[in-house]
Write a structure and sequence with these properties.
The chain is mainly alpha-helical. The chain folds into two domains: 7-291, Fic-like fold (Orthogonal Bundle); 311-381, Winged helix-like DNA-binding domain superfamily/Winged helix DNA-binding domain (Arc Repressor Mutant, subunit A), CATH 1.10.10.10. The chain is 58% helix and 7% strand. It is built from 15 helices and five strands. The longest helix is centred in the last third of the chain and has 41 residues, at 271-311.
Length: 392
């Protein structure tokens, strides 16, 4: 439904030229959303898909094993949208202090993303509301190290920013002037906490994402924070008990449409077109996550069965190392000892068994400081990231 612009332009001076900065109107949209027609069935399907996804966290025998790597896949994808070249294997190696130096800034961004999500979830679980203060905290963690650390981590910007182009005067989009940020974020926070507007949770999350991207309150990291907000809002609302929904792969695959729809909301007020895209993304992503979790669970059972029937009395140690590989699909022997409590000789012997069974693969070709990958498990997790397999 086309309305009019969802805000107004404020003409401000910047480096000797006049700049048209966009100030969004407060949410919810006016006139109200039209959720009937094709939107309502998609909303219902997406909501059911989220319910199935949430059930995965209770059906998996070890959901934390799946979550560790799945969250890191999202971190890599979200950073790739911003132009980084790090891969899932780079991030896992980085966490083992084995990252390739050429990608250190890129992989640091992905690592920061994991830390920011973890911080946000911990705060929510301890009863802290999703607010401007928490958003700033998340941003501070996101930009704590590496590229962007000089862009005022944890602080709303005190100057004009822009998207595309070389300056505000030729930019594709100019967010609100910094002097308007306090009012914009106050209205945004009020919308996040509203309980009387009758909006379904998924619709609220979709609206909030666009509004945050339009406000663009930070000098850097706005896109990553905006994507994190989707997951955090769903967890805060109790729709998800674990952070299992991530839209970065969907947005990466439909990048041009995504940006076009954001602009269409601002210029034409067509929130319904955006919501149709967003809800389809939630549906596709949730169904894909359920399928991935089920395939990983099946793979785990099959491999554990092979270990139990093939190895005999050595199965106990091999199963413990296999479980460690599920949690960390790229693993050193010293890390295997730490995760399993086995001695180095026992962990080494168990890993040798897994290599002989074709479950694990040694990556380095060295005699010392060797690294091992759970190849099939890693390949399944890595689908969609368009990066090479570990050690390739």
């Amino acid at each position: 439904m086309k309305r009019t612009k969802t805000g107004h332009y404020d003409v401000t001076p910047f480096d000797g030229e006049s700049v048209r900065a966009f100030l969004p109107a407060p949410l919810p949209p006016d006139p109200p959303l039209v959720l009937d027609g094709s939107l309502q069935p998609t909303l219902e399907k997406a909501t059911l898909a989220l319910g199935r996804l949430d059930a995965v966290s209770t059906l998996l025998p070890e959901p934390s094993l799946f979550l560790y790597s799945y969250v890191r896949k999202e971190a890599v994808l979200s950073s790739q949208i911003e132009g980084t070249q790090s891969s899932l294997s780079d991030l896992l190696l980085f966490e083992l202090e084995e990252a390739p130096g050429a990608l250190i800034d890129d992989v640091q961004e992905a690592s920061n993303y994991v830390a920011a999500l973890t911080h946000g979830l911990e705060r929510l679980r301890n009863g802290f509301p999703l607010s401007s203060r928490l958003i700033r905290e998340i941003h501070r963690v996101l930009l704590a190290h590496g590229r962007g650390a000089d862009k005022d981590p944890g602080e709303f910007r005190r100057s004009q920013n822009w998207i595309g182009g070389t300056r505000p005067g030729n930019a594709a989009f100019v967010p609100p002037p910094h002097v308007a940020l306090a009012d914009c974020m106050t209205s945004f926070e009020r919308f996040l906490h509203a309980e009387d507007d009758g909006l379904p949770v998924l619709v609220r999350v979709g609206l909030a994402h666009v509004q945050f991207e339009t406000i663009h309150p930070f000098l850097d990291g706005n896109g990553r924070v905006g994507r994190l907000l989707v997951t955090l809002l769903l967890c805060q609302a109790g729709i998800l008990h674990e952070p299992l929904l991530y839209l970065s792969l969907y947005l990466k695959q439909h990048r041009e449409e995504y940006y076009a729809l954001l602009n269409q909301v601002r210029e034409d007020g067509d929130w319904e077109a955006w919501l149709a895209f967003f809800l389809e993304g939630v549906l596709v992503t949730a169904e894909g996550a359920v399928e991935t979790a089920q395939r990983l669970s099946t793979m785990s059972r099959e491999d554990r069965g092979r270990i139990e029937t093939t190895v005999g009395r050595r199965a106990g140690s091999a199963l413990r190392v296999h479980k460690a590989l599920e949690a960390r699909p790229i693993l050193s022997l010293s890390a295997a000892c730490e995760h399993t409590g086995l001695s180095f000789p026992a962990a080494s012997s168990a890993m040798k068994v897994l290599v002989e069974l074709g479950i694990a693969r040694e990556l380095t070709g060295k005699r010392r400081n060797r690294l091992f990958a759970y190849d099939r498990y890693f390949a399944l997790l890595n689908e969609g990231t368009e990066t090479e397999r570990p050690g390739a």
